[in-house]
Amino acid sequence: MLLPLHLPRRHRRPLLFPPGLLALAWLLWLGCVALPQMRGMGRERVMQLTLAPLQIPYYGVLGTNLIGKEPYFSSLELAAFRPWQEVRFTGNLWNDYFSFQQAQTTVQQLRANPDHDRGLRIQFEPQATYSSLVKLFDLFEVENVKRYWLDIRHSPTTLYTFTTKPSGVSYEDVPAFTCGVSAEQSHSVPTPTVWERLAKSLALLHEPDWRNSTLLLLLMALLSVVRLRWRAG
Fold first, then answer.
1. Count: domains in the chain
2. CATH for 117
3. Nearest-angstrom CA–CA distance, 71 and 80
């Protein structure tokens, strides 16, 4: 007697995500996280530079423009302000190379000895390239130089940086404490709450680098919920 042979059936479960969606999410993660960390693909940076206006109007009591005060020193005021070490960029390849090396050495000296009234004046001839100015701004960023300004009012265009000798502290400036008098306590910074930290973390997802990825992931989650509701209904 022959017994019937039941062939095994393969039970197919419905997928939670559409086919290929997880692979798409993996490629999205690979493009947003893994590739920028690979060698040779550094993150681009943008530095915002705020320049003083060419002329600041001064409004008197009557509200009329009486005089125009320019936020730039004259040549005599600059000479009396600091002893300057000058570097000049002319647009010549070799000259600009050695000028940059000289500027880099001077900036490092100013940073190593900031307790003196000294300064560096970098002038750009009309034939100088824009890349030279960008390299100097990058040098200031690397060396953590905070006190500088770019003079575009006078010709040639000049970049200044300087250090200031600290003023001496006299005994009259030091507060005296007597019995029964306490010093003012500095207010401590309040610790952010859990909700504040969570809101700060969620705000990072709205940055331009992650905005499109976040919207795509939210769209994928919404499609999955709609698919589950459609199957359940």
1. 1
2. 3.30.1370
3. 16
